[in-house]
Write a structure and sequence with these properties.
4-stranded antiparallel β-sheet; 3 helices; 4 strands; alpha+beta; globular; Alpha-Beta Plaits
Length: about 90
């Protein structure tokens, strides 16, 4: 099942994001078998990363929640909010 993990950074935490980013990227690499797509959300001017959006393919919601909680960004308290929603891919068809 696909799930979207949509996480918004706390305002004013750009330095925290940058300092943890190497650990975050290593975590994603270690989970590459379940990641469909992933990347940072940006401010409208493209100058700053303001959150994370990932689509993952896991067995159930519990696995999606465990993945999200295991992210070094989440462990460090970077996110103001995290939303996890089941997602059905329609286009392009699988």
């Amino acid at each position: 099942m696909h799930y979207i993990v949509f996480a918004i950074d706390k305002p004013g935490h750009v330095d925290m994001r940058q300092s943890i980013r190497p650990d975050h990227l290593e975590y994603l690499k270690s989970q590459k078998d379940i990641i469909v797509t992933a990347g940072p959300m940006q401010s409208d001017d493209g100058e700053a990363m303001i959150g994370s959006m990932l689509v993952i393919d896991v067995a159930d919601r519990a696995a999606a929640e465990a993945f999200a909680k295991g992210d070094p960004y989440a462990k460090a308290g970077l996110f103001e909010s995290t939303v996890i929603k089941r997602w059905k891919r329609t286009i392009p068809a699988e």
